[in-house]
Design goal:
Order of helices and strands: EEEHEHEHEHHHHEHEHH
Oligomer: single chain
Structural class: alpha/beta
CATH architecture: 3-Layer(aba) Sandwich
Strand order of the largest sheet: 1-2-4-3-5-6-7-8
Number of strands: 8
CATH class: Alpha Beta
Shape: globular
Helix content: 40-55%
Strand content: 15-25%
């Protein structure tokens, strides 16, 4: 595994330099997290693609500040992809990361030959209690998110790994992420997406329930849908083998000649 930084954006990659004959999976983390959440995907999918996981601006090892709109985050990731000359990029995002992927598919089509949407929706409204908890006592924010982010079947180790990453996020950066989610709405534009899209949803996802994925599946022209049982919002971490299998099958079916 390599830690790299290009300009202001840090990222993890399984191999360096990127292989020209492979597509490039670009993983985008969820609110308040970092590239570390994609560890199992970086290693597990390296046989079918270049694998990169970015730290969004203000997160992890990327330079501050964070951002407050999906468009700004999408532009930042797209710029990185262009500057790295990543071959056949396939952005893959969870939650806010999935919103960023949708924005890229719509506004930066040169940076996405396909897209992967995990636990996300075309609109991502945020409960006022989340903003209030971050503002009043960030220490209470992590257990609040734990309550809604995991399936009852999730292991304590999995939960603690995510909690540890989230505790390190500056409160103002987490607030910016949730502002970006709260103002995001491309529901009326989803039929403009021309690239093939994989949608992965979890039966126990309380933050982005299955109906969000149902809508994406209906509105986007070319989709593959995978629905995971006993999986919460953090499904890439709860069930990495199943998520990886779905992504691998999708990538292998793409016509990238």
């Amino acid at each position: 595994m390599f830690k790299k930084k290009h300009g202001k954006i840090a990222f993890l990659t399984y191999e360096w330099p990127l292989r020209d004959n492979f597509p490039t999976l670009v993983f985008i983390h969820s609110s308040g997290l970092t590239s570390q959440m994609w560890d199992k995907q970086l290693t597990g999918l390296s046989t079918v693609a270049n694998t990169i996981a970015v730290d969004l601006p203000g997160h992890g090892d990327s330079d501050p500040p964070g951002m407050e709109t999906m468009k700004d985050y999408a532009a930042a990731v797209a710029e990185l992809i262009r500057e790295l000359k990543a071959p056949n990029p396939i952005p893959c995002g969870l939650s806010i990361g999935g919103g960023i992927v949708q924005q890229m598919l719509l506004d930066h089509a040169d940076c996405a030959v396909a897209g992967i949407l995990i636990g996300t929706g075309g609109r991502l409204r945020v409960a006022s209690s989340i903003f209030e908890t971050i503002e009043n006592n960030y220490a209470d924010f992590v257990p609040l998110m734990e309550k809604y982010s995991f399936s009852p079947t999730a292991t304590r180790e999995c939960i603690e790994n995510i909690n540890e990453i989230m505790r390190s996020c500056p409160p103002e950066v987490a607030t910016g992420d949730f502002k970006a989610c709260h103002t995001f709405d491309v529901m009326n534009r989803l039929n403009e997406i021309e690239q093939p899209v994989l949608i992965i949803s979890g039966a126990d996802d309380q933050l982005t329930p299955g109906k969000y994925a149902d809508f994406l599946e209906r509105e986007i022209r070319s989709t593959t849908r995978v629905h995971l049982e006993n999986a919460g919002h953090m499904m890439p971490n709860e069930h990495p083998e199943q998520v990886n299998a779905a992504i691998r099958a999708f990538v292998e079916e793409l016509d990238l000649a």
